[in-house]
Input
Amino acid sequence: MDQIGYDKIVMVNGFIYTDQISLDYIDSIRKRHKAYNNLLYFLRKKGYDSSSKEINLTFGEFWEHQIQKFKSEKTKKTKLSQSKPTTYKLENQSKILEFFKKHDKKKEYESFLSSIPNNTKIIISINRLSNILIKIIDGGETPIEEDFYGNKLNLDIGVQYKWKSDMVHFLHMFSSDIYELNSSNIYKDEILKPNTFLYTLFNIEESGVGKGEVLLSYLFKNSEISGGSKPFDISLNNIDEWNIIIGSKRYEVKNYSSSASMPIRLGEGGRLTQFEFFNIIQETIIRCKRVHSEHPNQLRGICGPILFSIWENMIDDNEHDPKEINRAIMLGVRKGEINNTHINDIKMFYFLMHELTTNNIDKRDYLYNEIHDFRKIKYINHPDLFQKDLNRSIEIYFDNHVGLDAFIVFRPNKINIVGKHDMVYKNISQFGVRFIEKELYDEKSDLGIKMLNAFYRWKEEINKIKGVSFYEFYVKELIKENKKS
Output
């Protein structure tokens, strides 16, 4: 058996990775995983003798054995799942297809049905919707009352008649250009209006198919819902006369129709641990904690009150003091909840440490080497790069999601179509970076941006204002701005 040496095993954020293993193995393996010595103890305690195969394995052999075991289990599960028939399928479509045939849109409706992913839950939902449509098509004289995704549908005869008209009118109303939807009034007049056909489509949401995706597949020709299998939610395709795709735009769909300013979450692709800025913050905290623990009094004297206060915030991991929790940076980093107060304190730390390590520490000082060593940290050498890297993380997200063109963001009054250059960093929550559209971002009220602009001006005027620290300069700039406003 080939061994996997230590060079083939990498520990990342508490998970084991190797070059022979797929990421979907992690959830399976972490439940078995203990340090090798703990595994031996466990096996012996359970009565395994010393000749047991796993006990005699080396660390590398153990993992090779576990990988093979996993592959065998996965093969069995795959074969089992393939042997099972599909439990649910689209039902009761003949009457609906006949309805669209009468209105010369049978092919369009069939195309819509084919865009629905083979997902049990979403098929059940489409079947439920179909039952409502059949009642409407039958054209009875009684109102229809249904509960659909928590929405109380009260369809009297007039509303039923409008639904029949809308079913035909809106089916594949648009080509593959998402901006056609934006240039129409149907978002405000139909999609956001309760009890309408498009509002009902908009609210269909299941695991793997987000809110708004079924609606878009109904409105746009040659659309295709990915169903969670690809790094985008829906494709809007251009088809030539031979039915060949000659162009495609791929979108992630985000529903924030109830909030005009809530930041956009990126899911797993926005996890903090994949971004350089987060790793640099962690490195900074580790260095800060070590120096502070070894030389607290000397550090206070070198830093001065402002920088030392922020330094203590950097290494604060105390979650038991609610008054200070919003400034406990180490705690925020550990919990993946880094608020804007944390970010602004971190920015100020980098600006002040840049100043200290560049000009303001005597080589004869006891802590000179310790403090000067902070220059190895990217954001202390170049503090302005911190904000740039925060914003660049959205570009990294797009680079990692090959094929993704833009986000379709449903807001209360409009639909925003935003690419990687149309979004900026907003905050961090639940270990994820969150962004917002540039048009919704108020740069003038962002203290971090004011800090950055003050830093640029301070660097330009540093020879004219000798003796004025960056912090003093920054405070004066804020005072000037407040007087103007």
Observations:
- The first strand starts at residue 9 and ends at 12.
- Residues 59-83 form the longest helix (25 residues).
- Residues 1-36, 50-55 have pLDDT under 50 and may be disordered.
- The chain is about 50% helix and 15% strand.
